[in-house]
């Protein structure tokens, strides 16, 4: 990690939320700032070029993606300021708590996974004596196994459009071991992370703005962005904050009926479990109700299960929607479920590798052909990501040389994440006007803030959403980047922010101090 | 490579184009076969599930992608047959000449590139003594340099949505060295291969079917597929086969006017140089005319330059469209050019790594923000692909430890490709009724076949395009997979196929023999 450890410098922390440098004010009402430092007044100079905001696809214009939106651009500008003017602020580095990007905050990759990837990247060293000294025996063995599954051992070749068959077999076995029900490698589509898989399903299902997708509110903005880009309608269903972000079937029914009455044909229900940004884990009984609802209403169940390994409380467990539907007696031809999984989350956190898969069940052969065709237009996903997806679904087993170190690494990460979630949750709940549900899973806390009227007025004056105002002030005063709740949508009139639990554990106390002092200062400034 | 070397078994080659196994007949008129072996009659059993061909996005249904279409599924079935019944055919393996996938046909990766990738995947070994014995000194040095460019050295973290800044700097320097004109890392968007970059531009530019994109005919079907998926109109311009696939400005003008008269607003001109599937290399004077045309007609120039390193004739050279426009005095604000580059092509052929970039110039800051936002919805491209894209734009230099071996590997691949192109071109031109333009660049030959009337009638009876009929028969008789010209579009009434020049050189004589004997048999069967 670059920058100084804020834990070492409590004396520099200050509670004031005032910017020391008015010129770097973060309250300018620009929705998406350019990544280059071009003076906006120069825009007219481009009158000789053909593309303008008036002539681009309006779906692109309307699309929003808050997780990497304005707040991140402000953070990048602030980072640049710190680089050019070290000491200009009360903090020395920007802490990106806006996005589930564990390794950017110092989480180390699982050694076994990286050993195998390196060997598959450069198989020429597999037979060399030095390699035995550098790599574990089982990583060498696994690399040989994987290479044998790749036609011609060509890790640099395009694969089958669904991904390498042998790797899909491994993933299907992993799913079987997890669920206790059969899985078929022909149902697996390997993708560059879960996002392209979600896009593919939206592209398949959405014909026009009359097609709707039921999405939780709050939701991960990939869903709203993807629905907008594909020209459909997001049909919201609200999670109940009062019951730990409960998913009520009555709410699903009401929203479905409301959509139907507006002429919207609802095609699918998206469920994120464990929840993002909300961190709840669904109970099995709730999942059964959801399956029943999809079955009855003939909806595709889009099951975002990328946080399946991220569960931090003993009273909750992950169950895949496919498993739940099978335990209910529903088979392949009874219900359509797409399960999304990613190498970016879990204890592995390999976001940069862009690996993932979707398991599609309950689609007719002719519809599957169309999904296959869509996959084939982009040829295939990256092979390292494919290999990694197979590894996370079949990690070392008891008796393997790497098992003990693998398990120790995994356990250290997951138990630390659980502790961090608890500490941050308690800290947030101790703040004036802040309430925060339990982070049962995933990588986020989504606290609610009761903002004083004066703060809401100040935000209005700055032409910013109140939670955006709060997040901007927090960033400006502490260097901590969180995403305003409005980026995920929320019950109108309520305000939240999403904060990851990912900063390294030794930094958590300083973050709590910074956050607490900032919040106190903010409330002192704006309290009604 | 798996399978037996066909070169060793000329005695088994036969000229007959008759299938020995009628049950494996390849002439069934199915456009896209399922990858799973589900009996189509079972489809009705899915009546309990919500998604049918009638209710999916019709843009998906209308999209075609021949390079991985029917012919590949037929080949996969045949491969399965060979596996289950070895010796059932006159050949022992399927030769995939349908797609530019060099490593699938035995091309070896460039050692230096793979060394650096492996070290970046597992940086823990960088400081180990054994590593010195396994890796070249400059690959170790380069890995350190690259890791220093990645915030926190985290190769497993999401990067900036455009890609890691330091890698983009390297790429910009590589472009500057290539072109002799400045390049800006803020103009670079790293992507998972060139395909997602092309999709991104289509998504930006296409608002409805009234928006058109000028595309060469024949064209690489990514363009037609992407335009269909985004709901636009492909405005064709025909390359002139008689003048070596010449690109005539008068043809561009005529087609532009014709489109305008139908109410189509033409947004962009796609040019593939070197050509795919046609293999021609544009002259600089022709490129200047094209730039002038785009400037005058206010079209975005979509420059597919992924084959920039694949040039096989001494009288042709690659010039980027950006360079050509700069030599004409056009600057950043005069013309909009998007240059696509990929790690999949060139002498590296790293298709499975899914790396590439687009360099966008001549877009206003507010339009660039929108492109940035689109990139951010998918978070970032895979980091190994990003690293590789930087490596191909800055390979070892004279004096580096790896330089000599790197250069030898590169030169061996490119000079062998040139010889293969020449041999295959000559062989094709020697066939009755076949004419084939020179493969000046890229990885393909696109011969024209004068099909006898009887063959056209037989194709009609089999409900197949005549060139699809020819390609199916070729596959069935020889195991050689080529793509029918109709997959790329062609002048109506003419018939072609695309064949890569990628099989390893020692196999070329046997391929020529197989192809020649098949063609003779085919003509004997159908000659008018």
Automatic annotation (TrEMBL), chains A, B:
Start and end residues of each stretch annotated as Disordered: 1-22
Pathway(s) served: Amino-acid degradation; L-alanine degradation via transaminase pathway; pyruvate from L-alanine: step 1/1; Photosynthesis; C4 acid pathway
Family matches, as CDD domains: AAT_like
Keyword Coiled coil listed: no
Keyword Transferase: yes
Gene Ontology MF annotations: L-alanine:2-oxoglutarate aminotransferase activity
SUPFAM superfamilies membership: PLP-dependent transferases (SSF53383)
EC numbers on record: 2.6.1.2
The Aminotransferase class I/classII large domain, residue ranges: 153-504
Cofactor(s) essential for the protein: pyridoxal 5'-phosphate
Keywords: Aminotransferase, Pyridoxal phosphate, Transferase
Subunit structure: Homodimer.
UniProt record similarity statement: Belongs to the class-I pyridoxal-phosphate-dependent aminotransferase family. Alanine aminotransferase subfamily.
Protein name (record): alanine transaminase
Species this chain originates from: Abeliophyllum distichum
